[in-house]
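so my prof wants the structure for this chain in the tokens format not the other one, which i didnt know existed until like an hour ago. anyway here's the sequence
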Amino acid sequence: MNLQSGVSSPEAHLQTGRAVTRAAFFLAPNFFPATNRAMAGPMQLGRFGDWLKVATVFGAVGVGAAMLSGPLPAFDIVSHARIPIGALLAALGLLHLPARRPRWAAAAFLAAGLSIAPASAFFSPPQAHAAGGRTLRVLFHNAWMRNEDPARVLTLVRSTRPDIVALIEVRRDWRAAIDTLADIYPYRVMEPRYGETVILSKTPLEPFDAPGAGASIVFADIAQSEGPRLRIAVTHFTRPWPWDKAGAQRDQLARFAEAWRANGEPDIVVGDFNGAPWSAPLQTLSRNTGLRPAVGAGGTWPTFLPAILRLPIDNAFVGPRVRAIARRVRGPTGSDHAPVLYDVTLAD
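here's what i got, hopefully its the right format
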């Protein structure tokens, strides 16, 4: 699959976001008489139609907030959820149609399109590997600290047999289970983070410190049968506001970008970014480092939701040596995150 930068103009997002927000707050009551009547007097919230109107307005405001997230970090949480917001608005549009509210339906479909459009470049079906070059398979998974049973994770590893396995939030009482994989992966790194960050490899690997990168990142060089070593970074970034202070996630990503430049460029960065690849924080990371996000359909969190409503926060970014990468989301393992399998083609 060809890689795409997916980086768009923050100014364009800001202008469009302002327009959508103004429309939701000011234009809708005048453009849609039904809204004007509903807002002018006591709304009969028991009526299903009124709930649809309220939900549509809130959805449109969410789209505007997502577009305003470029200069306003407090809205980052909304920008990560473009696909679920767009899907819900599209569903609302369909529900407006049988009630003979075509203008409400059109507004919902328009807002859905504005929500999904910036994310559409990151979704495409898996394609064949690029011709030439070496191909490696990398499995990344947030195993989740509350997942007490490692059996399904081990089954996934043995059934897919990737060249490299990167796991985060591994419980310390899983060590004995991880040891059983030594017949396939004789080389490993286990670093204490939130739980353990684990890198398993079929070939020798050597972890190294990257000053300034932060405690949530593990770097390693992995020997290859042919050609230079593969440099990998495994990360787990903080969550956006309101779980952390506004801008904390961006600050952490900026520190990683500085460490990335100072300590040698990784070929692939995998991790739980707690953010979607089209969001303002991760687009900024791409612009500052030249790293390109892996594209491919499939959200990863939380796994109890249908796939279309999940957020794709478990991601991979690749450097210039990577010619192509295919991304596939795998089935449940008992974690609240779905695992992701990457087929990476390196330049000769």
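also thought this was worth mentioning. Residues 213 and 258 are 7 Å apart (CA to CA).
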